[in-house]
Amino acid sequence: MYPAPISDYFAPSTLEECLDLLYHYGSQAKIIAGGQSLLPLLKLRMVDTPIIIDINRIIELQEFGEKFLEPGKRILRIGALTRHKTLASHPLVLSKYPIISDAAKYIGDVQIRNRGTIGGSLVHADPAADLPVPILVLDSTLRVISKDGERDFSAEDFFLGLMMTVVEENEILAYVDIPSPQKGTGAAYSKHSVVFGDFSVISVGARVTLLEDICQSSRIYVGGVNPRPQRAVNTEEFLQGKTITSEILQKAADVMAEEIEVESDMRASNTYRKILLKHYGFNVLSKAIQRAKEDQF
Amino acid sequence: MNQLKELQKSSADGTKTIQVRVNGQIVEREVHIRMLLVDFLREELGLTGTHVGCSVEGRCGACTILLNGENVKSCLTLAVQADGANILTVEGLGTPDNLHPIQEGFWEKHGLQCGFCTPGMMMSAYNLLKVNPHPSSDEIREAIVGNLCRCTGYEHIIEAVQYAAERLSSMSKEEREKLLTY
Fold first, then answer.
1. With an 8 Å Cβ cutoff, are A32 and B81 in contact?
2. In what side-by-side order are the strands of the sheet with A214-223?
3. What is the dihedral of CA A11, A15, A16, A22, to 10 degrees?
4. Which of A2, A17, A197 lies at the smallest CB-CB distance from B34?
5. Which of B4, B71, B81 is facing A21, going by the closest CB pair?
6. N or C: which end of chain B has fewer CB within 10 A?
């Protein structure tokens, strides 16, 4: 199936050139990186764009690694062009930020992960996508750039709704900064999909900080059920200050299933989703706590 | 902005000239920007071993090729994006007289029925064997999760990949590299 006609194609080799192009053609142009979501949309005529800007050659967007923003404030910087394959298998991610590889390894299949990028996934903002949840759970900061300047957003402010983010037509998401985990913290992600590698029916991501088995703080998001991942605030409050036992986690999962609004669709009924949520909620919290205890983050 | 206008002029008619290296040969063609890489390979270059299956979402994997050393779906890539790239298609694996060990595996273990998914399967197997010389059956399953087969139960395909892995590991390092480093 052919995509809709495209009249112009640019492949800038620097970020500056790309921002110039966006400044001039922003409203008529679409950015392509991996293209794993954009090409199906072009073929189905759900997107019709006269101009394509291919960012694959821009080295500034390929940054990946830990750095100090200021003394004592270490972050993992993930450039927008980082492929899912890297996120799924990089030793740094596996050892310190395993929740990200939890999510990345379940995106599509090998071919999709070889090509797809974190920037593409986040800006596409599909409610059932895998990466938004861990990005939210880890309190990341996202840097959006245009010719007029730079804007930083917390992940919470970045996602607006169904396939909508704060990124304007003349802007590009440049990178994601993830704060380095503190001691006693663990995080995990899991999802349920109809077929392996498919979009999620529900997904859960959680981060827990423990001090001698007592929950100091937590951050929990549920994806796949709403226009954007929903934060499980009541569950976080429920866990606060409690000594963690299997029973408490079971109850926390019940609270989670209670507070998250789920809808029925062709993939699953809301009743089934609630059952899934209890199951995955418990498993993800257990895994996060296990990692916190082993200081595996 | 002079430079940009220049760029725009060169392709505003919806076409662009690209140069790619396919199975060792450098080719240059003027293509429509909206042309998919799979259509470029099949229609422009006549390499019809790369198949079009699902055609929309890139779910079936029959169009899998190696792009700069990694297996990707050529129906989810624009031909213009491959400008300057190094591509390996199933035609580049071996010849009827001298089969690539992967092809030999599919032949010996009957890793196919209708054969439609086979080229894509072989390219994914290539990508796997390049980094993992002794894959377990689970690792093979994971590697071909993006390649659908509607005829078999995948068992023979897995045996075919295992056969290829054994053949390759019985070879010298040089021979192996020659057969796996495109």
1. yes
2. A185-192, A202-211, A214-223, A230-231
3. 60
4. A2
5. B4
6. N
Residues in a beta bridge with A223: A203
Using DSSP, state whether A24 is helix, strand or coil: helix
Question: What is the CA angle A94-A100-A102, rounded to 5?
Answer: 80
Question: Closest Cα of chain B to A54: distance in Å?
Answer: 7
**Minimal CA–CA distance to A175: which of A133, A153, A146, A144?**
A144
Strand partners, A220: A206
A247 CB burial (10 A radius; 0-12, 13-18, 19+) = exposed
Prediction ipTM score? 0.92
Stated pTM of the model: 0.94
CA–CA dist A178, A147 (Å, integer): 25
A291 in Cβ contact with A263 (< 8 Å)? no
Chain B residue nearest residue A113, CA to CA: B72
CB B149 within 8 A of CB B121: yes
List pLDDT tens digits, range A6-16: 999 999 999 99
SS3 B91: helix
Among B33, B61, B75, select the one facing A52 at the smallest CB separation. B33
Residue pairs spanning A and B at CB distance below 8 A: 107
Chain A residues 47-66 with a CB less than 8 Å from chain B: 52, 54, 56
pLDDT in tens, B55-72: 888 899 999 999 999 999
E strand intervals along chain A: 8-10, 29-32, 51-54, 64-70, 73-79, 141-146, 149-154, 159-161, 164-165, 172-179, 185-192, 202-211, 214-223, 230-231
